[in-house]
């Protein structure tokens, strides 16, 4: 074969690898286990360039691990339930099932052309009844343990998708999927008790996640340490949560959230109209709007609370900057030391009482423009005066207040239980039977799965579509055998992805979610995917594993040992690729034109993998040319061009130092520098081919090692080169080459010295020697020195590590 033609080799190797079961994982095979996992896609149609970007670098990493002797599992499946599939099916007027599975078949073909080492014998889709059966089993287990419960209350509602959303799915007040502003509705819904694990989820000691993800999760969980203080009101005792109990004597009014249960009772007749109008207006705002900086709004209820220490009467206000979903839904307002309370007090002319003063500082100017939020000493607080105040010293104050019976230490979390029921069709039916006599009953194990009926009118109406299938709804109570009804909600698809990493370990296992004999395969050693899942999927799956641990299903507390996020491939203009902008790069077209190896190389080369970057349509020519050049190097005979001077040490140094660099770069997942190093080594090999090294054992060693080093990045051409060199077995079954440390480090190099265009000898100098040092070394060499005798050096050209050229007259 004279020219590199990827189309002539890639399909053929893909087929042969598939037939020989090259990538089939065998848990019994020797080698330490390495579980590499890339987040599975929604089968919404086509694999786009982002899927390729997310997969090929982890694939190269998994291949590298495998060649290094690890027993690597690298599976893939489809996250096939959920709104994207359902919405697309509605748009096309077809059933999501047929549509989904056609897409899966198509996308499997696309994955195949990537030349990845995915083990397709373990694949599944979460909409397979044999998969969602275990979602249901887990749900009944959670229910029995009190971790799944139904309760009424205000929930997030997406008016476009016509379903409730979990808090985690509301981003900036809008639906995470469709961007529609979220409304609030009062509904009875299913929840999973993730808050039971709030504290433990803040502990990341057993999982190596990017700092950014840890931070996002930590903020989302939002632990606040403080105290609860109880005030008496005409509607009974009212407890507030505060992180600043040291400011208790500075509380000058109380504020309730508009939805707070006591508002009605506390509102006096004179204030009723104003309060009701205010509540109605607040109800039309989103949480985000309510939390926004800007003019504070509120209304006086007409009632007063009694301060637990001073007995002062504090006016009780209603204002929407207090959220009903946080703390107790009411606050003691300390305008002197809290920004929001300060702004509120200014606007409504409420008293401001300083109680914390910086040590040696001035009294707060209550007529000024801002409160004092820092540390200091307590003032104007009677017996507490002189104690340290501020966020750092609340433990001591809490103790004092506890002793007086006016406060209790309290830790509050921002995290809420996970709302998991959805009013949509394409999901896992919630396996609960509602009996009028016995209440909600879990479906017994031997009746699972509760299958999703096929023939249902699923256009969203806001009601669960399964309600319309009256036959399906009919059930028998597992407890009293009386007539009962099935729950008609389906599960949030984040349930599906919370435990799928276990299912790959034994995808056909029928006696549980996974075969306990495979416990040792967890945790996932390297989990890769997009940052957009930082608080959804990555938090939920950590929760799920902790519950599984408490159920005795795993020994692990974390599902992922190491998590890394890739960046995004953007369009040429730096914007997000999207169909509507018409700037999408289709990987199928690229593969058809350049072959998979070139596309793989380019995607690894385009940018630091974790950052991503814009697509450059011309850029792909570089990798294409590089692979052609390699092809010619192997199959084109001795390279022509000017003769080169290269020692055996030079050549071995280039190969072994590159290997050393690549190993380190794979370890830190720096894929672009791996490709760059391989390209640089190619240049050295071409030069070596034009030197006396051609055909020597060092040359053979270099080509052998280079072939192996190429294998993780460009698996097809590497296989062809390996076979072309008469290699036995697949290149992908070969052990990874070993660095010869003595060859990889070299402090000195031999370089040729020319005097006025003629080669006059060699000098041995430090690799990084300066031009002056090189010149001194040359003048100290008698062979060279005699050509310089009696002449002036007029010009020096020095290429470190390669050549010194002296022009002398
Ligand atoms: C008195 C006080 C004085 C407060 C002071 C702060 C500063 P984090 O840290 O976010 O937990 N708060 C309590 N419940 C609230 C609710 N439902 N909606 C809005 N604000 C609420 O915030 C805790 C602080 O936020 C609490 O401490 C309370 O105000 C307010 F100088 O109490 B603080
Ligand atoms: Zn019953």
Automatic annotation (TrEMBL):
Binding site for ATP: 579
Keyword Metal-binding attached: no
Positions of the Aminoacyl-tRNA synthetase class Ia domain: 12-204, 415-604
UniProt motif ('HIGH' region) ranges: 41-51
Record's catalysed reaction(s): tRNA(Leu) + L-leucine + ATP = L-leucyl-tRNA(Leu) + AMP + diphosphate
Top enzyme class: ligase
Ranges for domain Methionyl/Valyl/Leucyl/Isoleucyl-tRNA synthetase anticodon-binding: 654-770
Top-level taxonomic group: Bacteria
A molecular-function term among this protein's GO annotations: aminoacyl-tRNA deacylase activity
Family, as annotated: Belongs to the class-I aminoacyl-tRNA synthetase family.
The protein's name in its UniProt record: Leucine--tRNA ligase
Biological source species: Deinococcus radiophilus
